[in-house]
């Protein structure tokens, strides 16, 4: 039993060092719940993705026509391949240069608002996930200490120790599995920003504007 429990302790130590110490080095002090290696940028700057006609107020420029609103939804959806999105944009961007510019402003305003909101939702979810991981890590530490204290007591119940050790092993496995998924989740805000950049570039190409350098 002692050897088994010591093995559990080692497993816990490895999980906590790998799951907490390493991400902590990458945290921005301003965002203590942000676990990603990528720096947290709370909002995409429109200037970083759009160098086309000035938009002014994003909310005022967003499309209101149901067909244009549906187009924005299809373009923003990551399930729509970017090549298909470019074709949809090209089909929409027709007319005189002035008409194209007005269409472009409505389209980019809708995409910016939509993808920025999706990104914000994802980032809030990542931070909620991080807080849950911290709480679980603290619980694992507490359970580890509890087992150690029970082992040190004379006449301790081996069956109780074994049950606690089994529960601790299961908690540690869950903690570690969740930690491994963090890197994939952390990529989502970057992918959303890249999609907005690619869509903005496609819109600008169709009104004759040079795509923004990146």
What report would you give on this structure?
This protein has 214 residues and is an all-alpha fold. The protein has one domain. It is built from six helices and no strands. It has helices at residues 2-26, 58-61, 66-76, 82-92, 97-152, 158-206. The longest helix has 56 residues, at 97-152. The radius of gyration is 25 Å and the shape is elongated. The termini are far apart.
Structural class: mainly alpha
The general outline is elongated
Q: Helicity range of the residues?
A: over 70%
The count of domains is 1
Largest sheet: none
Order of helix and strand elements from N to C terminus: HHHHHH
Mean pLDDT: 83
Beta content: under 5%
Number of strand elements: 0
N- and C-termini, Cα separation = 59 Å
Report the uncertain regions: 5-10, 12-26
Q: Count up the helices.
A: 6
* CA gyration radius, whole angstroms: 25 Å
Task: Output the keywords.
214 residues; mainly alpha
Topology:
Blueprint: H1 2-26, H2 58-61, H3 66-76, H4 82-92, H5 97-152, H6 158-206
Helix pairs in contact: 1-5, 1-6, 3-5, 4-6, 5-6
Summarize the structure.
By secondary structure, this protein is mainly alpha-helical.
